[in-house]
Each structure stands twice: as C-alpha cells, then as structure tokens.
Design a protein that fits this description.
Number of domains: 1
Number of helices: 14
Distance between the termini: 25 Å
Low-confidence stretches: none
Strand order of the largest sheet: 1-9-8-6-5-4-3-2
Order of helices and strands: HEHEHEHEHEHEEHEHEHHEEHHHH
Structural class: alpha/beta
CATH class: Alpha Beta
Largest sheet: 8 strands, parallel
CATH architecture: Alpha-Beta Barrel
Mean pLDDT: 94
Helix content: 40-55%
Number of strands: 11
CATH superfamily: Aldolase class I
Strand content: 15-25%
Shape: globular
Length: about 325
C-alpha cells in the first residue's frame, strides 16, 4: 500500500475535510503550510468563487492542496474543468459515481480520492482505479451513510477488501484517534470537524462558539429519507425530528429544509433556523485554534503514543 505522504507530496498523512461553508482558501492554505493536505470545499461555491479561492490559495501556499467536488451538485462538471485547467494536484470526489471523472482527471496527472461510507462504495472505487479512498464512519459531520457504520467497523472492513490506500474519517480528533485509525489499517486520516472550528475556517464565529459549547450528545444523524446528515441540535433540528417522528414524507422534509439552510446556520450564524453540520467530535472541541496548532498537537500526541507503545512492547 502506498504511503499517503509520498502519494500527495505532503509532510503528514492528514487530509483536511472539504466542508461546505468552512473550507475556503484560508483554511486550505493554512493546513497545507502546516504539513497536511488542505482542501477547498467547492460544495458551497459558484464556479467564479471557486476560481477566486484557488487563486488565493496558490498565492498563500507553495505546497500541494486539493479541491473537494460533490458530484451531485449542478456545477460539478464545470468544477472538474476548473481543477483541470488550474492543474490542482489532488481532487476529492464525493456524493456520486467515482467512475464519472476518475480517468479523465488522472489523464491530467491529478490524483483522485473518493469518499465512501460503505464497503460496496469502496469496492466500486477500486474497480475504477481511484488513487485512494476516504472511508467515512457514522461519527462524521455533514452528509453521512444511511447504514450508520462506525469508523471502528468500517475502516478494517474496507482495508481488508481493497489494495489501494484507505484514509480514515469520522471521529478523528487527535493523535490518539489517528493512532487508532492506523492500527485499524488506515494509511492516513481525514479530519473535518476540528478544522471546521479552527481560526481559519470561513464558518461564522457564532457557529464555532456553539460547537465549543455543545458537549456530549449534541449531534444527531437526521434527514435519512433525503440525504443523511449529522446536525448539531438546535431549533431547526427539533423541527426536523418532530416531522420525522410524525412519519413525514421525503417531500415534506424537503419543503421544511428549503434552500440555503446550511449557509444560514454555518456561514451567516443563525443558530436557530440554520442547518448546523458537525461531527460527534464536537463534544471534544473545547476552543477555537489555528490550523497549524491543531496539526502540531495531533502529530506530537501521535508520536508520543507511538513511542509509548514501543516502550511497552
């Protein structure tokens, strides 16, 4: 299995999640400058905005960075052409068929990662030749697998089934959880929620502060009749739960969701009416930190755990 750091030309096998309304050029460049792989999250952008973020990221870092492209969104084909033209070294595709653009991007020398939440998706990824898989467990924030398979179960299951590198996601917070992922066979980790609440995240400060206050049990997987998403509990979540408990149809839930809910909550800071997407590790986030400090603390703890493990062997 290839080394993730060598595959992507980075110092540490840490990939930043491409989270909507959080992962702009400032966060991506900060993560890349600190030794990880920063990711611009295109899911909340128009083509012109994506071009602007790529230009600013290139000006802010000389290290590799990538772009996350959710394939279900209307601009995805145009985004593919943008990353091709801009010669982005790594593209993470999600929420769609990995066969659609993998060969096309690889022909341009672009490494392709695809995000999955189950074994079937992982096997599909390997069959179409992606360079690596992000296997994302039930603990993760944002859109999630309906199967509710946890990271602890998903990672070894996928690692045992494929020969390409597997990047663990969902519940990865610190050096201990990174070490656990490696023990399960992962070749790297993707971290979303902790970076979403970082200083450089483009999310609203009120959202960040709400996550810091959230505590144990503050999130729940919701909207499984549409596209499952993990949400911080607030008034909008309560409305969703009431509808779901009453047996609401997908059409009724879609009407309640409307448009722009995630922007309203995460970017505009409306904590009651907005959709607040975040992972279970929200319960462990105690402060808003610079991305560089997050990476440094993760690597320091990971190395400490490694040394302690060796000393007890």
């Amino acid at each position: 299995m290839k080394n993730i750091s060598e595959l992507f030309g980075i110092q540490y096998p840490i990939i930043q999640g491409g989270m909507i309304w959080c992962s702009g050029w400032e966060l991506a460049s900060a993560v890349s400058n600190a030794g990880g792989l920063g990711i611009i999250g295109s899911g909340s952008m128009t083509p012109d905005v994506l071009k602007e973020h790529i230009a600013k990221c290139k000006a802010a870092t000389k290290k590799p960075f990538g772009v996350n492209i959710p394939l279900i969104f209307g601009h995805s084909a145009e985004f593919i052409e943008i990353v091709k033209t801009e010669k982005i070294p790594v593209v993470i595709t999600s929420a769609g068929n990995p066969a659609k653009y993998t060969e096309y991007l690889q022909a341009e020398g672009i490494k392709v990662i695809h995000v999955v939440a189950n074994l079937k998706g992982a096997l599909k990824c390997e069959s179409v030749g992606v360079d690596a898989i992000v296997a994302e467990g039930f603990e993760a924030g944002g859109h999630n697998g309906k199967e509710e398979t946890t990271t602890m179960v998903l990672i070894p299951m996928v690692v045992d089934a494929v020969k390409i590198p597997v990047i663990a996601a969902g519940g990865i917070f610190d050096g201990r959880s990174m070490h656990a992922a490696f023990s399960l066979g992962a070749a790297g980790v993707q971290i979303g929620s902790r970076f979403a609440i970082s200083k450089e995240s483009s999310a609203h400060d009120l959202f960040k502060e709400e996550v810091v206050k959230s505590g144990d049990g503050g999130t729940q997987l919701s909207l499984k009749k549409l596209i499952a998403v993990r949400l911080l509990k607030n008034e909008f979540y309560n409305m969703v739960k009431e509808k779901e408990d009453a047996g609401a149809s997908p059409e009724e839930l879609l009407e309640l969701l409307g448009s722009g809910r995630a922007k309203t909550g995460m970017f505009d800071g409306d904590l009651e009416n907005g959709e607040l997407e975040i992972g279970q590790v929200a319960a462990r986030i105690e402060k808003i930190e610079p991305a560089s400090e997050i990476i440094n603390s993760i690597i320091a703890e990971f190395n400490e755990v490694q040394i302690d493990k060796l000393s007890k062997a």
